[in-house]
Structures are given as structure tokens and as C-alpha cells.
């Protein structure tokens, strides 16, 4: 339908404009993340290659510190998408081994959640390093869902209750401002 595609084009509008620099986005950026667990940065950069094993969503340091990456979702109650942070948490050696064993096993969704300490600074949520989390296994091919269980922490509260679109915009704007200040 030529007519409709014409109208669709006309209707394309800006979803988000960064308040610091005016950069324009077709879609509101709602997914943020970190490539490494925080502990990674405590290893001198010239030793990282020998001491750190990093593969996709798994990381082992000195064969005794275990980390994995998961998805921390903050529901936006009045919008059709959620705010997502890809974060790292620690995981015990036993549970790490279990995750490896069950990597391609669809029954892994029945596992008890794995406890871990958050290893990512979640922007705009104050101090989030080493707060308590659990990681919940998902279907094969997906990284675990991470839930903050640190009592009274804003991240726990907003993850449980969800946030408004207005609040999400404030968070995104804060993050974008910071990211753009680095460039
Ligand atoms: Zn900007």
C-alpha cells in the first residue's frame, strides 16, 4: 500500500532529544549495560590477559572469582517497553559450575535462583556495587534475569513497583548526559 507507507513516513517522529546536546533519537534508548564486571578493573591492565577469562556473559578471574552477566529489568508501568540494564554479578563457584553444566538444558529454568553481589554501577541509582541480587535462569540462549534484593535500596523498590515513563525519561536523560560528556 503506497498510500500507507507514505503516511507512515510522514508520521515518523522524534522519540527522544538529549537535553544536553540536542542529539535526536528515533526511539527512546532504554537499554544500557556494562561489558565487564567491576572487579575486572581492579586487575592491572597488563595482567588482564593472563588472569582473566572472559567469554560472552561469563567471567573468571584467577580461577577463583566467578561472575556472570544478566538482565536487570525495571518495568515502565505506563509504556510498552521496559528499562533494561545489562549487569554483572558475582556467583559462587558451585553455581557457576552448575550454570555451565546446564548451559544447553531447557530444564535449567527450574533451578533455584543464584545469589550474587552486584558488580555493575547502575547509573542514577546511587551506590549499587556489591548490593545483594539473585539471578534467575531463563530459556536456553538468554542470560539470567537479575533481581535486586537489597532491602530498602531504590533499585529494589523501583524494580518491584515499576516506574512511570516520566521517571524513565529522567533516568535516560541523566545517563545520556553523562555518556555525551565523555565524548
Ligand atoms: Zn547529549
Describe, in short, the structure shown.
It comes from Epilithonimonas hispanica. The chain has 183 residues and is of the alpha+beta class. It is 27% helix and 25% strand.
Give an overview in words.
27% of the residues lie in helices and 25% in strands. It is α+β, with helices and mostly antiparallel strands and 183 residues long. The protein has one domain (30-160). The protein has a five-stranded mixed beta sheet. A three-stranded antiparallel beta sheet has the order 8-9-10. The protein has a two-stranded antiparallel sheet with strand order 1-2. Strand 9 (132-136) and strand 10 form a beta hairpin. The longest helix is centred in the last third of the chain and has 18 residues, at 165-182. The structure holds zinc ion. Zinc ion binds at residues 18, 20-21, 23, 176-177, 180. The site of zinc ion has 7 residues, from helix 5.
Q: Keywords for this structure?
A:
183 residues, alpha+beta, 5-stranded mixed β-sheet, 3-stranded antiparallel β-sheet, 10 strands, binds zinc ion, DUF2199, DUF2199 domain-containing protein
Number of domains: 1
Element-level helix/strand string: HEEEHEEEEHEEEHH
The major β-sheet equals: 5 strands, mixed
How many individual helices?
5
Give the helix/strand class.
Answer: alpha+beta
> Which molecules other than protein and nucleic acid are bound?
zinc ion
The tally of strands reads: 10
N- to C-terminal distance: 43 Å
Average pLDDT score: 92
Radius of gyration from CA coordinates: 19 Å
Unreliable stretches:
none
Strand content: 25-35%
* Oligomeric organization of the protein chains: single chain
